[in-house]
Amino acid sequence: QEQLTESGGGLVRTGGSLRLSCVASGRTSSPYRMGWFRQAPGKEREFVAAITWNGVREAYGDSVKGRFTISRDNAKYTVYLQMNSLKPEDTAVYYCAGAPDYRSDYAPRLVYEYSFWGQGTQVTVSS
Fold first, then answer.
1. CA distances from 69 to 7, 27, 41, 66, 95 (A)
2. CA distances from 113 to 32, 55, 107, 126 (A)
3. At a CB cut-off of 8 Å and minimum separation 6, what does 3 contact?
4. N or C: which end of the chain has fewer CB within 10 A?
């Protein structure tokens, strides 16, 4: 069974940066597409970014485009989310998610497209 563990969250001031990491364990021999989502209190889970198993295609939510970058290192079974120019509205619990997929052109944005999830890491941006 696949397991995902996020790290790198914390408290940062407006305009600052953080890099989140998500390490996969378990059945890591299969190709997986990966995504990052976030959820603020009282709000629905929101798509942040996604990447295909080989890193060829990326997708971003409109609210983070140009500020966040998703990347992966398959040798380390790790996906990253570099977050720059952070704003108070970026405050949320950030979740890493994955699904088995060998395709190089599919980086979906919907929660139901992902079959396993991490526990989340809190990101708080102060004004």
1. 16, 26, 24, 8, 15
2. 12, 18, 9, 32
3. 24, 25, 26, 116, 118
4. N
Among candidate residues 97, 112, 9, 6, the one with its CA nearest the CA of residue 50: 97
Structure tokens at 67: 């500020």
CA distance linking residue 120 with residue 74, whole number of Å? 20
26, 6, 42, 58 alpha-carbon torsion, rounded to 10°: -90
pLDDT beneath 70: ranges in the chain: 28-29
Q: Express each pLDDT in 13-50 by its tens digit.
A: 999 999 999 999 887 667 899 999 999 999 999 999 99
Query: Cβ distance 59 to 50 under 8 Å?
Result: yes
* H/E stretch holding 10: strand 10-13
> Which is nearest to 35 in space by CA: 10, 1, 70?
70
Residue located via tokens 């999830």? 117
